[in-house]
Amino acid sequence: MPKLKIEDLDKIAVQQQRKMNVREGAGRAKITVHMGTCGIAAGARTIMTAFLQEIETNNVTDVIVTTSACAGLCSREPMATVELVGQAPVKYVDLTDEKARKIFKEHIVAGKFVQAYALSIGSERIQ
Amino acid sequence: MEDLSLHILDIAENSINAGATLIDIVIREQKTQDMLTLEIRDNGTGMDDATVVSTRNPFYTTRTTRRIGLGLPLLEEATRAADGMLEIVSRTGAGTDIRATFRLSHIDRKPLGDMAATIVMLVAGNPDINFTYRHEHESETFTFSTKEIRLKYPGLDFNSPETLSFIRDYIREYTASFS
Ligand SMILES: Nc1ncnc2c1ncn2[C@@H]1O[C@H](COP(=O)(O)OP(=O)(O)OP(=O)(O)O)[C@@H](O)[C@H]1O
Ligand SMILES: [Mg+2]
To answer: Which of A89, B70, B80, B171 could form a disulfide with A37 if both were Cys (CB 3.0 to 4.6 A apart)?
Structure first.
């Protein structure tokens, strides 16, 4: 099988150009995965990979995943914040690959936030 | 930290927090010298000499959310466990160069891990930063550079699922035979 070449981006660049002309604005939802040494050691990259895979397999085009510096809640890592346009951001804690995929399906796709994994108000503790 | 690619992600995050716009990651495997070298160079704010010394101490951090900084001490521990060492070269205003060495064949040398996932995460979170990943493996050298891609495809959306999947597959394919 021939190896991928950087030129294989030609097609992606053209497609993006076409999409850009149709849709405007950044998207419907933003997922932020928190980094920092604690987050990374606890599995932040696995969570990121899970969200990206869900986006890919579900062919979702209006959700972006990004990262941010550590949120300071090391004991609850890995953490991610989900923000749907026009709604308050929800912080999810103690994530795993499966929890991330469930959040994707229920919160991002279906629009119902997953209370069981959300950070409950008042439980924040900065170390 | 389970593997070296996670340490690299963590050290590159320091560069991002230091305002870097250019981050070069180099992995050098030298079988004949039985040596593995990781290098993360950035053009961020840099540190003065006293700060460089303090970073060896976990109780040093400039972050405001927590009173300890673990990234560099953990990497240093990983190098020591495999007969290597951590070098930090930095100057205020001139960026930082972190070099970690390991004995390649050391039983306690952590595996390299998933560099494709590390680069994808860095690019997704920081699409405007120019990242270069160079991997020297015996006589082969693999280079991936978002700066070169940007020059060729101005306006390419790096944080799009298609671009990120491409980057993941591209790096995987070329580094599959590496350690
Ligand atoms: N590339 C860099 N450029 C400038 N300053 C740096 C760089 N790397 C580290 N530092 C300084 O050294 C400190 C310690 O870094 P270290 O990675 O050990 O901990 P941290 O980033 O503060 O916290 P943690 O890694 O645990 O999330 C940082 O807070 C920062 O002040
Ligand atoms: Mg750090």
So the answer is: B70
